[in-house]
Amino acid sequence: MNSFEYAMPKRTADVFRALESSDSIIKAGGIDVLDLIKEGIAHPQRLVNINSIDELKYIEGNQTTGVKIGPGTTLAELASSEVLSGSYRALAQAAGSTATPQIRNSATLGGSLCQRPRCWYFRNKDYHCTRKGGFTCFAVNGENENHAIFENDFGCVMVHPSTTAVALIALGAKLTIASAKSSREILVEDFFVTPRENMHRENILEQGEIITAIHLPPAAKNMVSYYYKQKAKQSFDWPIAEVAVSMQLDGKKCQNPRVALGAAAPVPMRSKEAESALNNQEVTIDIAASVGKEAMKKATPLSQNKYKVHIFQAVIKRTVCWASDIDPFA
Amino acid sequence: MEEKKNLSQKEISRRSFLKGAGIASVGAVIATTASVDIKADTKNDSDVIGKNGISCEFDVNGKKYAQKVPPRTTLAELLREDLNLTGTKVVCDRGACGACTVIVDGKSVCSCMTLAIDSAGKKIETIEGLANGDELHPLQEAFVNHDALQCGFCTPGMVMSCKNLLDHNAQPTLPEVRKAVSGNLCRCGTYPHVFKAVMDVSGKKGE
Ligand SMILES: Cc1cc2nc3c(=O)[nH]c(=O)nc-3n(C[C@H](O)[C@H](O)[C@H](O)COP(=O)(O)OP(=O)(O)OC[C@H]3O[C@@H](n4cnc5c(N)ncnc54)[C@H](O)[C@@H]3O)c2cc1C
Ligand code: FES
Ligand code: FES
């Protein structure tokens, strides 16, 4: 790792000043930042450690008021949160299926949203790929089995790595983003940036801006949610396909569904096709299966990842079933 | 004007030093004032530790160590290279295998992805802290009895993950044990024996 100096602000207000010096980056749990430095992808001169700021660590509120979460909350804390066990359970499930127990004890929600891509060409400093300012996306004609099956014709075919984002999008969550001068709110689904919009960044954060809060809206009547991830290895792994669903369920009648897909595109994405196939339906295994098929109609897989289309169909079917308390294998 | 600027920089470095002593009492404990290296940051109200680091006090297995660490030193490097506690292993150095697992303030973490400076003043437990002299910890005893290791390279991390589980949950179910070691890769495939060892210590026979 290159040498860096270490700022230890104690209050959020002090973070902005510490960030003013160029070549400084925020470090929360440090799991992604340290990996990037060790790989020689990032060379910060200063880390601004926000992990000891207590005012960024909390889970407040309930299903009636909505829930506000501090970005410094760890994934382990989210996974075991009582508040997230009902209508919002997709978020606890997503946090709990991210990485390993040890990583979840360190990694934070803010860091999970802002982590950089895990594409093996991006993470290898010997490949000067488009996202690092080069002219070639090595995955397009290379090893692309884990890459995008949507939005993959714009010069970078990575999939966004954030598992928590998938659940937050299904739950309609918002972020508060603050800088020294101002603050703004944005839906999680609008936070991420596709390669079509900008190849060199994954989200809209400007230098000097940080996420200061994550908001789950009040749960609608009879709202249920579910998150599920298919991985290659049973114990822990990155997803091949991950899906989060939320909907209002009156008996088995579904209303206002939100279906979010991870490991599908360079951004965690909503599937409008899945949502319209599910809206106003009485959920059954057959309906759930047709939702999976609709969601994949416009997929454009690469040379090595056609299998992901089939896996997504199955994972969407199962997630819709489990959200509706139906056994998909019955 | 120039003179005034110099003066205020001096003031700032003095103030920053004193504030450095302030963080020290909460997190990092400064051992000797001579080795303190807190850089004055004129624009900045927060404390910045320079690249050369700061002298901190570490509590490892109940024993106190004073050590100067640069910010980039990982906890695994501190333990193995500075404190000569080589029981903690490093395999991937990227948070993906669990060989380097230690317990910090009651939570299992990958010491390869934890900065030493962040662990100063906290309670660090490593594999060396388990046995009491020649007397093995019950979990170590159970690992031996159940043949829960082959090459042994994953074992210190595996044992620390199991200890962390039992510290929080003395009577885990088999799925809970499986989950607790899901971040510890064992290429020799000792998992079934590890599960039996943990169930044995918890007083349950497993499966
Ligand atoms: C073995 C392994 C398996 C993994 N599997 C998964 C997986 O399945 N799914 C998944 O999603 N992830 C996975 N990860 C990645 C892991 O979840 C992330 O690296 C972690 O969540 C990052 O959080 P952190 O707090 O450590 O962030 P840091 O590394 O501290 O920061 C990450 C980035 O976020 C920025 N940042 C942090 N907090 C804020 C904030 N409040 N405002 C603005 N910017 C901020 C930092 O500047 C940095 O750029 C895995 C990691 C490992 C090692
Ligand atoms: S060496 Fe730390 S997780 Fe592999
Ligand atoms: S005993 Fe050899 S890796 Fe686990």
From TrEMBL, chain A:
Q: Which UniProt keywords apply?
A: FAD, Flavoprotein
Q: Which SUPFAM superfamilies does the record cross-reference, listed alphabetically?
A: CO dehydrogenase flavoprotein C-terminal domain-like (SSF55447), FAD-binding/transporter-associated domain-like (SSF56176)
Q: Which residues does the UniProt record annotate as the domain FAD-binding PCMH-type?
A: 1-221
Name this polypeptide is given = FAD-binding molybdopterin dehydrogenase
From the UniProt record, which GO molecular function terms apply?
FAD binding; oxidoreductase activity
From TrEMBL, chain B:
Q: Name one Pfam family in it.
A: Fer2
Q: Which CDD domains match?
A: fer2
**Molecular function terms in GO for this entry?**
2 iron, 2 sulfur cluster binding; metal ion binding; oxidoreductase activity
Decide whether keyword Iron-sulfur is in the record.
yes
Write the record's keywords in alphabetical order, separated by commas: 2Fe-2S, Iron, Iron-sulfur, Metal-binding, Oxidoreductase
Stretches assigned to the 2Fe-2S ferredoxin-type domain: 54-130
UniProt cross-references to Gene3D superfamilies, sorted A to Z: 3.10.20.30, [2Fe-2S]-binding domain
- Keyword Cell membrane listed: no
**What is this protein identified as?**
(2Fe-2S)-binding protein
Origin organism is Uabimicrobium amorphum
